[in-house]
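Task 17 of the worksheet. Students: predict the tertiary structure of the chain below and write it out as structure tokens. Keep your answer in the requested format; marks are given for formatting as well as content.
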Amino acid sequence: MSTSEDWNSKIIAEFRANGGKVGGPFEGAPMVLVHHRGRKSGRELVTPLMYQPAEGDPNTFYIFASAAGAPKDPAWYHNLTAAGTAEAEVGTEKFAVTVEEITGDRRDAVYAEQARRYPNFAEYEQKTAGIRTIPVLALHRR
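Model answer:
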């Protein structure tokens, strides 16, 4: 098991043991477990992520392919955009979602709000400046 898989496993276990809440660097942040299939491996995967609820739409929330400011998009981003659907766990609920990539001014506004709420996201954007634009995905409950 890789270090990132071990890290994720601990967060996933804590999330499930505490009704969707985790501590440490994510304490108090809204968290989602995104279930997806590896587009190359075919493996079932679960990725814990922070999310931002969409204002005025309780069935939509945004996730951010920041990879903590790494130079490449995370694999889960490619898996989700290739599939167009996934499952999400929020709190104690699990449900199907469709995946939509958010671009342009809308993407910029959503990302700016996330960076305002959680300053690490502003740091991630600084790290990727000139390398990549951090993708924002909307997950819509089906």
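Marker's comment: The chain has a mean pLDDT of 95. The first helix runs from residue 3 to 17.
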